[in-house]
């Protein structure tokens, strides 16, 4: 790699720098408007529990966008993973009264494995439909998303599944060395994906497929396999988000987190991902998710209703689109 | 095997599937054939059908629209609230107002999609969130119930014609009338032909001199207008106005348009196919109960229908590409 060059980070379309400035402006504005409540340790601690789910979903969305696709089924996958884990815990592998801690950990571990298998299979289905059957990603994932949500309804009959083991709750509410467990998990996922994208042939090839699919074919890349693998990764990430969501709320339901879909797309785009493919960084997405979390926590403190916060998210997306359009034109 | 020419059209395939579905469902449960059931199915076509016409226009242009449910809700709720506020009783003016509100929202889409050159899916996700957020956050979240719903709208929405002792809603003719208008626009106007060209290849359409800017603006404004109109029609047919209504409609409507043979890549799609696609989707969704399938399976069935229909379309497209047409 050689020596660290700060200009290279800035030069990445100025995107990271622009994002950092936006984040700082949001932080400063909110601190100025609500100094007593916004600047409390408790506020940042609660953000560190909530944002990782959304952050992981946004990274998943970015992965799908790298090849010029999109995954509209991530929320369905996340909920289906949580619900199947819930079914597993309440009907198949029910807690035994005198279970030792190790047995409980094993039980939670197998539940998590099951949930991630759900994501893997769901991603495989999406990948096959997109790469082999050549269905447009929007329609394929719209359809499978509907199927996954439908399976959630069939499995639960409507109401939420509760009764997750205590250790499962620690994934969403616990602390590791005083740091929120979801945050630790998020960092692990983010670093892994970042390394895969920047330091492995898989990542490089994925970027190439997104930049120029035709050239990728001529370069001898097995595009179909790459695309299937990328949707499988997206699926697993979605299921990890589902594990965290059900762990934090101790429940799983077919319509949890539906507003996350728009937000995940928004964060991915705001984080510098090109929805047409070929460009996107984990760092950009991570900064974007923190910026938007600061924004909505600040507005919540100012007693804006959740509907108005939805409006602000949407407006933010449109403004970013407009700014980027003007910047590209100026160049 | 050589088939007659009309059977090669994708509309024929949809019509055959529709016919087969009707025969099968009718054979499984003869209750299907009761006029009440059939007229209810026809009635369920109206609002989804008008929205599908909107999505059809957008899809022919090569875009996709997920914002029309929010626009429909905004047009419907704002109009009803305004009517109650001014104590206005009428039909024509409110529908014009709702159509204009929808058209204005559509203009917003057009500006971002054409002027700022952003992918339609992401723009419409954003405008949907903006419009719905403003509606629920600033205007209100309470449902306008039947007792506060303007009587003129209820009267209009409940107008029916009696056939064989059952009531067929007259709104079906409103829907079919709009379908004819859209068909005339698509096939008989320069802008409509240009829309097909633009959807097929924007750059070529621009080079041969089609006014691409006007095409994109016309498409999204018309789509918004149709959505606004459909929104108020929905309220007058169910006698209440709920600002949270139409959530999830985007799936059904897009599915119906794709079923009808429109290509998401643009350039291809027809009004007749869309009408058949809507009829097929409504039939499948509403016949689960008659087929004694538990209603919780509805989403799974709709999702599966989308996947199968798009897979078939994709295979057809690839075969055509291989044939070198």
From TrEMBL, chain A:
The chain crosses the membrane at residues 16-34, 46-65, 72-92, 112-131, 138-156, 176-197, 226-245, 257-274, 281-302, 308-326. Keywords: Cell inner membrane, Cell membrane, Membrane, Transmembrane, Transmembrane helix, Transport. One of its GO terms (cellular component) is plasma membrane. It is found in: Cell membrane. InterPro entries: ABC_transp_permease. Coiled coil: none annotated. It is a multi-pass membrane protein. Pfam families: BPD_transp_2. The keyword Transport applies. GO terms for molecular function: transmembrane transporter activity. This is Sugar ABC transporter permease. It comes from Tianweitania populi.
Automatic annotation (TrEMBL), chain B:
It is found in: Cell membrane. Its main location: membrane. InterPro entries: ABC_transp_permease (IPR001851). GO terms for cellular component: plasma membrane. One of its GO terms (molecular function) is transmembrane transporter activity. CDD domains: TM_PBP1_transp_AraH_like (cd06579). Keywords: Cell inner membrane, Cell membrane, Membrane, Transmembrane, Transmembrane helix, Transport. It is a multi-pass membrane protein. The chain crosses the membrane at residues 12-32, 38-59, 66-86, 92-112, 119-144, 164-186, 215-240, 246-265, 272-291, 297-315. It comes from the Bacteria. This is Sugar ABC transporter permease. It comes from Tianweitania populi. The lineage of its organism: Bacteria, Pseudomonadati, Pseudomonadota, Alphaproteobacteria, Hyphomicrobiales.
């Amino acid at each position: 790699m050689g020596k660290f060059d700060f200009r290279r980070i800035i030069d990445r379309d100025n995107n990271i720098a622009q994002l950092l400035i936006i984040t700082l402006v949001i932080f400063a504005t909110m601190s100025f408007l609500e100094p007593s409540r916004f600047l409390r340790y408790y506020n940042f601690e609660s953000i560190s529990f909530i944002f990782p789910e959304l952050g992981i979903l946004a990274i998943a969305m970015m992965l799908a966008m790298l090849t010029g696709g999109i995954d509209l089924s991530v929320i369905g996958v996340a909920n289906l993973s949580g619900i199947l884990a819930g079914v597993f815990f309440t009907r198949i592998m029910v807690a035994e009264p005198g279970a030792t801690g190790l047995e409980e950990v094993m039980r939670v571990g197998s539940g998590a494995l099951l949930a991630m298998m759900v994501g893997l299979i769901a991603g495989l289905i999406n990948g096959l439909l997109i790469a082999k059957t050549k269905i447009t990603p929007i329609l394929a994932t719209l359809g499978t998303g509907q199927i996954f949500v439908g399976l959630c309804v069939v499995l639960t009959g409507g109401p939420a599944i509760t009764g997750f083991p205590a250790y499962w709750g620690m994934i969403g509410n616990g602390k590791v060395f005083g740091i929120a467990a979801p945050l630790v998990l998020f960092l692990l996922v983010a670093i892994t994906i970042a390394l895969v994208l920047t330091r492995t042939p898989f990542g490089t090839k994925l970027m190439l497929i997104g930049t120029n699919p035709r050239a990728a074919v001529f370069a001898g890349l097995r595009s179909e396999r790459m695309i299937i693998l990328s949707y499988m990764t997206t699926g697993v990430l979605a299921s990890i988000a589902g594990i965290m969501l059900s762990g934090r709320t101790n429940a799983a339901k077919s319509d949890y987190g539906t507003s996350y879909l728009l937000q995940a797309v928004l964060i991915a785009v705001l984080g510098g991902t090109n929805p047409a493919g070929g460009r996107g960084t984990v760092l950009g997405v991570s900064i974007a998710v923190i910026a938007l979390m600061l924004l909505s926590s600040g507005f919540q403190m100012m007693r804006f209703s959740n509907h108005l916060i939805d409006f602000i998210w949407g407006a933010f997306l449109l403004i970013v689109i407009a700014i980027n359009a003007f910047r590209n034109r100026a160049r | 095997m050589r088939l007659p020419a009309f059977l090669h059209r994708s509309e024929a395939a949809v019509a055959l599937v529709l016919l087969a579905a009707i025969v099968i469902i009718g054979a499984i449960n003869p209750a299907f054939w009761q006029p009440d059931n059939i007229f209810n199915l026809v009635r369920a076509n109206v609002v989804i059908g008008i929205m599908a016409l909107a999505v059809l226009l957008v899809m022919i242009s090569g875009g996709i629209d997920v914002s029309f449910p929010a626009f429909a809700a905004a047009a419907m709720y704002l109009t009803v609230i305004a009517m109650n506020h001014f104590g206005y009783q009428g039909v024509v003016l409110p529908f014009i107002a709702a159509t204009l509100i929808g058209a204005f929202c559509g203009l917003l889409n057009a500006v971002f999609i054409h002027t700022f050159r952003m992918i339609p899916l992401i723009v419409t996700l954003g405008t949907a969130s903006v419009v719905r957020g403003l509606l629920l956050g600033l205007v209100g979240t309470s449902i306008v119930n039947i007792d506060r719903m303007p009587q003129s709208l209820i009267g209009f929405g409940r107008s029916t014609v009696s056939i064989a002792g059952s009531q067929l809603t007259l709104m079906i003719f409103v829907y079919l009338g709009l379908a004819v208008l859209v068909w005339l626009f698509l096939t008989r106007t320069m802008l409509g032909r240009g829309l097909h060209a633009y959807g097929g290849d924007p750059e070529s359409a621009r080079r041969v001199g089609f006014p691409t800017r006007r095409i994109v603006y016309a498409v999204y404004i018309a789509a918004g207008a149709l959505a606004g109109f459909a929104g108020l029609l929905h309220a007058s047919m169910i006698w209440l106005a709920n600002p949270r209504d139409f959530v999830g409609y985007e799936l059904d409507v897009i599915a119906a348009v794709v079923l009808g043979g429109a290509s998401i890549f643009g350039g291809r799609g027809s009004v007749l196919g869309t009408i058949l696609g809507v009829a097929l989707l409504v039939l499948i969704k509403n016949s689960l109960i008659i087929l004694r399938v538990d209603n919780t399976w509805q989403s799974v069935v709709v999702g599966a229908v989308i996947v199968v229909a798009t897979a078939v379309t994709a295979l057809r497209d690839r075969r055509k590409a291989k044939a070198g047409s």
